[in-house]
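Escalation from tier 1.

The customer reports that the assembly of two entities below gives different structure tokens on two consecutive runs. Tier 1 could not reproduce it. I'm attaching the input and our single run for tier 2 to review.
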Amino acid sequence: MKVALDAMGGDFAPEAAIEGAKLAIQELPPDVQIVLVGKEDIITNLLSEKGVESDLIEIHNADEVIGMAEHPTKALSQKPNSSIAVGFGLLKSGYVQAFCSAGNTGAMHVGAMFTIKAIEGVIRPGIAGFVPKENGDFGVIIDVGANADCKPDVLMQFGQMGSIYAKNVFGIDDPKVGLMNLGEEEQKGTLLTQAAYQLFKIDKQLNFVGNIEGRDIFNDKADVIVCDGFTGNVILKFAESIYDILKKRNLLDPFFHKFNYEAIGGSPILGVNGNVVIGHGVSSGTAIKNMLLQAQRMAGSNVHLKIKESLGA
Amino acid sequence: MKVALDAMGGDFAPEAAIEGAKLAIQELPPDVQIVLVGKEDIITNLLSEKGVESDLIEIHNADEVIGMAEHPTKALSQKPNSSIAVGFGLLKSGYVQAFCSAGNTGAMHVGAMFTIKAIEGVIRPGIAGFVPKENGDFGVIIDVGANADCKPDVLMQFGQMGSIYAKNVFGIDDPKVGLMNLGEEEQKGTLLTQAAYQLFKIDKQLNFVGNIEGRDIFNDKADVIVCDGFTGNVILKFAESIYDILKKRNLLDPFFHKFNYEAIGGSPILGVNGNVVIGHGVSSGTAIKNMLLQAQRMAGSNVHLKIKESLGA
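Tier 1 run:
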């Protein structure tokens, strides 16, 4: 299996990316190769500086770089030789089985939609985030920002895709799916959540546990938290800021340590024809390493094919 | 000044309410009287049990009680002698200058809308919550649950009302108003936040600081955080759960201690013709005391009249 990594993406690229690859080859199964996508000379120099000599690392040249603040659609069309565009090309051709980057999130999302494309039958692919649970597990929260406005059937599919991810990547047998809402009762909420509730209720395949509230994010009421991308984004950034404050105040314990994005690595795009993981812009080498491990697990369990089998038209 | 307290409202009523009143008279200015609304015999017995003898406390009988789980509109029409209905009667007649309760939130909201009513010109009254800021201040977040679905002009008014509250009750000179969103850029967000942004942008009276994100809730980017009631409710309950987990894990420090709802007391309804504060269902005596102090500050600074002057038709 080959996993491509955008060596030029992220606030601390290319150093952090190369460092992440170096750490990852020590933990990945020996049949996994990392394909570093980016400026070949820079990557070669960095690998040699860091003393990395491994046939588990391969370089694929890409002359251009999409900046963190560039407009995603414009940048992708104007920079066909950027590391993100080239990475998606490798994924589409089947040369690699997963592609990940800590670079421009919008460009990663648009790149996925325009190259490997949404699975036919999936209305809107979503970006999944992860939240630590008090019981030691991780929960999936989807969507965390790709779709600010959602329709009820889109939320329904988020629940289905999140459930498939939780089952296949986290090994949770029959994942509990909860709908984020402002109250537990069926009739509570926005027009969106009220309508979505009815769709979830009649689905016989999902283990739908009903509405959950803001206070249930860390408990075990739901393994999969379904919400629109606006709400999910606010929750995730709020949680991140709490981690930062706890760290600053020296209050971290093993549970709150797991809030650290570095431990998780990245957020997969679910509902597209391939395994794509987007990392945090500030990703360190450790974060990149964990993103690579996650991409490999995702590819190993064929999540996107299972979503296609289940939701594909 | 007289402040009415629903003696029968809350999970621990009437004991917690009486305890709260007892604590409050030790801190309130001597010209403030507390009017306890509820079953007179029960209240009298409790006051005597607790050794409270004060002419700063007055009892106003109300024979019925609205339960925490009752349907707000039905309960209010079927129980005209409930402590909530009677309390609003006292507020409407001008006998008291503020009314507060830790009872049924929905009944408090509906009661306000049907008795003292929304200020003419205010499209939707909102419930304000409070978040501690890292710099030691408190911020206002509005709405936290009264209006799940909002229109752009409703968010605009939340910003105006929150700003008036922050200025008059917290004494913040020119409160910074931020729009909760999933990114900082003007074009980011839902159709709702994009449209609301344009309304805020052309307003010359408000100190609008633009979009803020989930990570900005505790920093000083904004004194007033504007969002729909769905988002605000998720944020507030999420913050509450974090407080609970920190407490359980013995990780509280002075900053996180301020997450405790007890320190704040309650959430005012802004945009109605009177001062109304709703307390948390689980309110302890300390929480009730702080709700009473808050109601008195609100009444003392005439927040509802200032909102009427500014937004009234």
